[in-house]
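Thought: the user wants the 3D structure for the chain below. I'll pass the sequence to the structure tool as-is, report back what it returns, then summarize two notable features.
Action: structure_tool
Action Input:
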Amino acid sequence: MNTGLRPKKEKKGLWLPPAVGYDLGLFTSLACTYGVQPRYYGRVLATLVINLINKPFRWFERIWINPKIDRQPVTEDPIFIVGHWRSGTTHLHNLLNQDPQMGSVTTYQSVFPDTLFNAAGYFLFRNFMRLLIAPRRLGDNVKMNADYPQEEEFAIGSRRPLSYYYFWIFPRNTMEFYRKFVEFQDRDDRILKQWQHDYQLIIKKAIRYRGATRFLSKNPTNTGRIREILEMFPNARFIHIHRNPVTVFLSTQHFYHEMMPALQLHTVTEEQLEEIIFSIYDRMMHTYLEERKRIPPGNLLEFSFDELEKDPVGMLGRIYSTFGLPGFDQVKGAFASYTHQSKGYRKNVHHISRHQLDRILEKWDFAMNEWGYRVPQDGLVINGEPVSEAGKS
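Observation:
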C-alpha cells in the first residue's frame, strides 16, 4: 500500500581528514612536506579552523591530565586483532566489544585523542562529531557513531609524525609512510620509543574512558608490527583473521575508491593505487608470516572470516577458551544479539579483469597456499562474466 510518505533519508555527514584533532604544527608541517592540491584548499581551511578551536582544550589535557594517566600501568594483557584490511577485522572488533571488560579506542577518541577528559572540550567536540558524522562508512556501508570502536592508528600520529594512516590524507606517499611507521626501517630507537610511548598512552586513555579492564585493539597496520607490539606487551594476545586474497584485493580497492576522495589532500592515479595495494599486502603478509613465530605459544589464534561468519558465537567461545578470558557465559547473549542485528548486512559484488586476477594469483600465491584459498565462486565477475562461467577455478 502506498502511504504517500517518503522514506527518511540518512544524512550524508561531513568528511574531513582526522587531522582536525592533530597538533597544529604537525598538520601544517605534513601539508607543506607532502603537498596539497588547490582543489583541497577549502578542506585544509576547515581542518585548520576546527584545529585552532580545539587547541586550548587539547593542550589542557596534555599538560594536566595525560601525565596522570601515563603513570597508570596496563594491568591486563591487551588483545590485538590483526589481519589485512577488508578481512573481517571490523566485524570481529565490534562483536568482542559487546563485552564490557573490553576497552577500545572510540571513533571520537581516534580523531580527538587529547580532548577526552576535559569536560568543556569533550562536550563541545563530541557533540560536534555526533552532529556531523555520517551514519554509515563510505565503501562498505558499515554503521558509524562517535562512540563506536575504531582503529587507534588514526590517533597515534596526532602529536608526532608517527602514523601510517597519513596515507589517507597524502596517498602519494603511502609507501614512504609504510617503510617509516610499519617497518620502522633502520630501526631508529628514538622514533620507535616515541611511537611506543604515544601508543601506550592512547591505550591507557581508552581503558579509562571505557571503564574497561582490558584493551582490545583492531588495527590492521599492526599485522606488520608484531615484533614492536611484543616489545611493549610481551604476553599480548593476537587474533589473526584472514580472508580470500582475491576478495581482499577487490574489497580494498573498492574501499579506497570510496573513502579516499573524502579525506585526501592530493590524488593518486588508478595505476598507483593498484600498485600500493599489491605492494602493501605482499610486504605486510610476508612480515606477519615471519614475525608470528615470536608470539608465545598459546597467545595466537588464527581463523578465517568464513569461519567467523558461519558460527560467530562459537568462534568467540574459542577465543575466550584459548586465551583463558573470563565471563564468556555472561556475555554470550549479547554476542548472539549483535550477530542477529548484523545479519542484514549486504556484501558487494566485485568485478575484476582477467589481468588483475592473474596478477593476484601470481603475486599472492603464497597467501593462497598458506590458508588454502582458491578463486571464489560467488560474488565475483571476471571480464563481465560470473566466475563459474568464466572457467577459472
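Final Answer: Structure generated. The two ends are 46 Å apart (CA to CA). The CA atoms of residues 46 and 138 lie 20 Å apart.
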